[in-house]
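Dissemination and training. As part of the outreach component of the grant, students in the summer workshop were shown how a complex can be specified as a set of sequence lines and then modelled as a single object. The example used during the hands-on session is reproduced here so that future cohorts can follow it. Participants entered these lines:
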Amino acid sequence: MKNEQFNNRNISSDYFEVDIADYPTTGWGKFKRVVERTFKLELLIGLWVVLREMFKFDTHTVKYPEEKMPIGPRYRAIHEMKRLWESDAERCIGCGLCEKICISNCIRIDTKIDENSRKEVSEYSINLGRCIFCGYCAEVCPELAITHGGEYENASDQREHFTMYEDMLTPLDKMKAEKQLEFEGFGAITPHEDERVKKTPLAY
Amino acid sequence: MIKFYIDSKEVTATKGESILDVARRENIYIPTMCYLPKASANASCRMCSIEVKAQDGFVLSCNTPPVEDIEVITNSDSLYKERQNIMKLYNVNHPLQCGVCDKSGECDLQNKTLEFDVSEQSFAVRDQARKKKKWGVHTYDPALCILCEKCTTVCNETVGNEALYIKPGGYKSHIDIKLANCIECGECISVCPVGAMASTEFKYSANAWELDKVPSSCSHCSSACQLYYESKDGEIKRVTNESDFSSLCGAGRFGFDFENRVISKDEEAFSRAIEAFKNTSNVVFSSLITNEEAYVLNELKKKFGFNLVNDEARAYQNFMKSFAKFANSSLYNATIDDLKSSDYIISIGCSIESDNPMIKFGASQAVKYKKAFVSTIAPVEEYAISNVVSLYINNEVGSEEAALAMIADTFIKDKSSQKEFFDSLDFGYLSGESNISQEELSLLKQNYIRKQNPVLIIGEDVINHPRANNIAAIAGYLQKNALFKVMVVPPFTNTLGVSLICDLDEAKSGLSVGYNVSADFTLSAKGSGDLDMPALNQQEGTFVNIDKNLVVLNAGVAHNGYELNDIANALGVKSKNIVDYTSRLGFKTIEFDDLDNYFDNVGNAYRGYKIDAMQNQENLKLDEVEELDEFNGSIVYSRNPLRQFSIFTSDTKQLKQKMDLVGSEQFAIASKIKSGDNVKFSVDGVEFIRHFRVDRHMKGTVAYNPTYNMDSKSSNYRYNQVELEVINE
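and obtained this result:
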């Protein structure tokens, strides 16, 4: 294999080289450039650009916090706990895999048996002060229950900052309005997954 | 010895060993699902199939003894296929709930499914509606059950309770229970390879991989069984054990939350404790103590000259002294393993049902595997062990000495060395007073013929008998004559250790300091005394158990307060850690950290070391049997119910039970009380008010009175004649 395709960066015919004068090497040449720049008032050109842009109204500046950038569905910000579409029940089964895989040890989960003798999450917290938002918890979750969300504003007045199960859980009204968003990052179902699943025979 | 080959390795088997046993001993892997080394082979899973060269078909290695010179193949393509198919069949309709299942992470089904690479299913059958069941301490989920029959095997053979059984019905088959037979030992939970049998309390509270496992020994009774404390976030969540080889009773498995939670060190109480030790004339303690602490107390005694008081251990010490003089050996010679392989067991003065669960387990295994003849000599018939006992001999209360003397006379052939003693026995009188007939004795004698491993169990009633010295002498004489292997059951966890280490005295007048016994100044691991001490699941140390083994105790939970070693250090008996004393106990000079606590591949226990008995040569004459005391009227037997031993089991969450006086209808009629009455009576000066309950299975005029919530164990004879007073409001 040749390196030509990597070395040739002129991928489009629109590309052209900028005409830049050579850097002065002699003392006299350097002196000449300083005098030239000083009296040509190049500085004012820059100032003019700033001034012009100040009074123009379609700027590219995002005026945070009034304005916020849209973020991608795979963005990994504060965790969310999803509900099942069919029943609005919590997806988390309390398997504890997120706690086990967490490399910064920020997840704590306690489970108990509930009145229907099913496993219930009794306590769930994430220490956002420790969390490095690596996404392993979302990746390992077998139920797509814990995911990352888009809420990235988690400034706090102390290092420890906990988020609890109830805070992360999709509210029921949001669920009713069918506004729950699925996470598309690591751990989510890849497209056409069902075509690859081998089915258990149901011969009876 | 049978010589044969496994995977072209030359191996030898002894008689009674199966091919699987030999393979395990030689570290050759044969997969199994249903095999339980401590019980007989179920042969239900067929995973352990092997091939034998020049023979068609598969052979089950678990129940097939090897034949000379055969060549066994443990792995081949067809075997792999067979095993893979077995795993596929196990997985038919097995719920895919590993995510929530308690067993996940330590599940045999999970492991073997992965091992045999079952990635797809080719079998199917219509599933059945299966209901989850809750049976007290354990729950059963038939959907998860693979019917390996391990639980029924342990329940019937190891425990001998015959509570669990298989309800047949083809694919509908499931495990069912006779709840009345269940003693809530949890053995079925421990052997279940999947999550079908689960602890009700533990269920869904933690995953297997989150738990820190600490190998330790049970501290509730003198068996000191091997166990693991499994904790998460500084709290013991459950207790497990090496269930393939050893057993645990319900107290060991479920009574683990007796730790003393202390927030910090109480310096003021500590300085008062030191003053108390300096000024005291008695230190009273119970045998729920490690060897090291007992040693420290003994060292403090040497330094400060107080009297070291533990009546229960002193009674045992005196019993063993007298025993040793006639046995010519300082210790008794039977172990629990001897009991399991015994074919003839006589117990006297022992409540087989509840004094020490491992004796009961051992006796029932002896019955199952060795067809043992078991006879109990006791004033009460314990109906719970009726499937184990071949002959109940009901002696009169207080006549144990006569009973043992008559046994000695019946069994010993050469009576010349104790001629005076045997000549003095008046059989008519003894038989009349003890209510043991000649027929019963000759039955004992007849069944003794051709028995190879007879065992005599001496229980607490005899050790604390008013005539204990003489009984000990007869028991020792029986051991010396090698008619029986004798076991003198230590009444409390470390009674044997304390009796070997400490120089015990009677209490003298003056102040006293109590360690787990209430006194003028009380050190308490229960949290109720003046200074908090660590409970036995918070300590490192050793016990001497019933097998005369020095076994290791490790801390399952941390203790934040002071311990006895801190007090000893402040008083000038200095050592960095309490376990530094382990090598100085006077047994073997092995450091604590060098003591083992594990089982090997074939189930040999490596737990601490055996304490050697000292031999002596004395020829003393036995004392004559004196006139027997008579006990009439209402008699109360201070016997604890199953799964309860001491203050440390009484308040644990899963063991808690009502403390009722339990008697037969006959007892109720004779004492003029009825079921449901509150009665007042006093035993050895201690007043009890108990709710009376009739147990229709019981017979005779003796009622059980639980005393496990008393802080010190009594050293008095456990049968007492009482006046019952009904105090219903």
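Residues 25 and 31 of chain A are 10 Å apart (CA to CA). Students were then asked to discuss how this feature might be tested experimentally.
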